[in-house]
Amino acid sequence: MSELGLVAPFWVIVLVWLAKVVLLAFVSTLLAWFGVLTLDALTPHIHERQRIGESPVAVGIFVASFFIFMGLVIHGAISALTAVTAPIIWYIFDFRIWGLLAISFLVSLLVGVAVFYIFDRLTPKISFLSINRSPVAVGIFVGGYLVFFGLVLHAALTGPL
Hints:
- The structure is a single chain.
- This protein has helices at residues 10-42, 48-52, 56-79, 88-92, 95-122, 135-158.
- It is mostly helical.
- It has one domain.
């Protein structure tokens, strides 16, 4: 007769679930760091990391945006519908989720940069490069990107796939 109920002890399932949440948070943080580096490379006339460091307000906006980003990622990782039906190690290393995160990362970068350039072309009287004149403006720019990226990763983590 097949078993009904938990195959592994409840505390093991909780520890594995916590390990997955922590691992997803660290991977997402690395993706955000790569995203900011990519943003630096794609917007060479805007010196993001240098300009943000020039103003405490810009640093505060950047850090607040990072916390929002991490909150979205952690919420996505915690609320993702998952069931431990395979061996526990495969629950942590679910390559469908990792692949979806990687694709979401690449697509969000491409879409974000493309929309930025298209919007810049559609509004010729507004110079987007003028944000480089103010560290606070650069902090808001990068902070907005982090929130955008956090929403994309949250959607990838909680999607029905």
